[in-house]
Amino acid sequence: MNSRFKVLTSTLLALWLTAATATAETSAQVEPGAVLSLEECRSMAMANNKLMRRMAEQIRAARYQKEEAFAAYLPSIDFAGGYAYNQKTISMFDQDQYLPVKTFNVEKQAYEFQIAKNPMTGEPLTVNGQPVPEQVAYLPKSALEYDIHNLFFGAVTLTQPVFMGGKIVALNKITGYAEELAQAKRSVQAQDIIYAVDAAYWQLVSLRAKQRLAVSYVNLLDTLRSNVEVMLREGVATRRDLLAVDVKLNSAKVDMTKVDNGLQLSRMALAQLCGFPIHVPFTVADEAETALDSPALNSMTTAAKAVDINEVYARRDDLRQLELGVMIYKQKENVARASMMPNLAVVGAYSFSNPNLYDGFKKRFNGAFSVGATLTVPIWHWGGNYNKLRAARAETNALRMELENAREMVDLQVSQATYKADEAVKTCRLTAANLAEADENMRCATLGFRDGVMTIDNVMEAQTAWLKAHSEDIDARIDLYLCDVYLAKVLGALSTPQLPEIK
Known about the structure:
Number of helices: 10
Shape: rod-shaped
Strand content: 15-25%
Largest sheet: 4 strands, antiparallel
Distance between the termini: 52 Å
Low-confidence stretches: 1-26
Strand order of the largest sheet: 2-11-13-14
Oligomer: single chain
């Protein structure tokens, strides 16, 4: 029993430490001395588990992402504005300008330049070989200078996607699948919590039964020691017989101490899983039971052998996760394909500035509307977009293979769980038979010892066999419950408390 108790203690300690990281920040209120049923423990664990709360937030995040993706169908309105300081002003000319002016010639019925003539000769006046006009228009340089030292500008744009290559549709499907994936993860986590609570619950029941068994065993050895002391005083027993009983009794007391410690650790682990303080005294409903039985396991194993494996696939949320993953990656292929297709959008804008271009750079805000369309057609990217599509297809195929492998593992799990449940039922029947034989063996050894035909060693061997038979019977009966819940989990039929709706 020593090695078994060491393994049990380390397992309970690990379970306790794991549960400490998964319970909620706020503890559930449990009255001291309360008697909790298995369903109550399940409900409290589901309500106070941090991982379940995190899953709820992930579902909300997936829902918001879904709404975000839907918004891509609708027109988007944006505003952009800014300020710039310019060192120099804008000038249309580098110096003052003199522009020739035409006059209307009535005789020729046309406009023509009037060239200045030399008053002495009457010949056209030229400067550097160029004729000099008689009349000019004077344009000073300062008249076409514009102050843009402080420039304010902005624009309000409206963009309506028309065709994005199927990217928006694919993203909406991805976010929809992502929300379902978050729901499936939450369901899987709920089943894991239920399984952990059941394991801790029945471990507690097992240790409580073994505590009663350890007390009974110590009482048997204590009674035997008293009888040996009497026999020693009467000279019909030796000192060696008394020492042998003392060694056995001390070992039994050590084992009883280990069982007591394991029981306390198991109670703390269950309290942590349920989310209430570990030092609050409580008991569980099945703790006081003297006989444990699980008659539903026989029908469960029979149903497991006749179940349609496709129905198991449909009920398993972990397989549903992989199926949704395949769907998501399939839509990622469509997103990658969209990068190779033209994109068309309608754009409208109202642009303004100060100084504005519409009133000769006057220092006031003014602007104008514009409407148009944008078309982007990918032509050549050296195979980058195509390789992106091929990579997405490869990821889809890889996840599809993982799904097929997971289904094969589920087949194996169902077979293993069924055989293990059958083995648990047969073991329980055998331990029950051994228990009756051990009880009879100890009764015969006790009577033989009283009649003087059995030695003290024979009695202690019978008591040890009795202890082992009872311990194995407890383990076998507890194993029935654990096999029951594991088989239900494997078949996807594990019932969980009603999960609150995520708003």
